[in-house]
Amino acid sequence: MEVIVLTETPQQAAKLIQQRLALYFKPRTQHRYRLDIVNNIYGASYNFFLNIQAPYQRERSLPLHRLRVYQLAYLETVVHLLRQTTQLTFNFVDFTTQRWPQKQTLIKRGD
């Protein structure tokens, strides 16, 4: 039996995340919006979430996408493409002491 592995390109992943952001992101006054990128070390993937904080309410976290290609260079390309189209704050979770492959800077919160 032959196993077929389908992987998406960074451009396809960024486009899918942008489409889902457009679906969920509705600008409202006094709301906070943040894009969380979580390093899932146990599942070997990167997860994207849109966090929305309304005044006097709990924060909501909406899952956007899961990158199954567990490589920092791939993630760096996807993040670069996303930064070109959105001005949301990026929050990197569980990337302790890791560095971007091309820039060689630490991956940190709000980088």
Commentary on this structure:
There is one protein chain. The protein is α+β, with helices and mostly antiparallel strands. The protein has a domain at 10-23 and 31-93. 24% of the residues lie in helices and 29% in strands. The chain is built from 2 helices and 4 strands. A 4-stranded mixed sheet has the order 3-2-1-4, covered by helices on one side. Helix 1 packs across helix 2 (72-83). It starts with 9 loop residues before the first helix and ends in an 18-residue tail after the last strand. It comes from Loigolactobacillus coryniformis. This is Acetyl-CoA carboxylase.
List the helices and strands and how they pair.
Layout: H1 10-24, E1 32-40, E2 45-53, E3 59-67, H2 72-83, E4 89-93
Parallel strand pairs: 1-4
Antiparallel strand pairs: 1-2, 2-3
What gross morphology would you assign?
A: globular
Secondary-structure class? alpha+beta
What portion of residues is helical? 10-25%
| SSE topology string | HEEEHE
Q: Order of strands in the sheet with the most strands?
A: 3-2-1-4
End-to-end separation in angstroms reads 44 Å
Uncertain segments of ≥5 residues (pLDDT<50)? none
Radius of gyration: 15 Å
Tally of individual helices: 2
Count of β-strands: 4
Strand content: 25-35%
Question: Mind describing the biggest β-sheet?
Answer: 4 strands, mixed
Provide mean pLDDT, rounded. 89
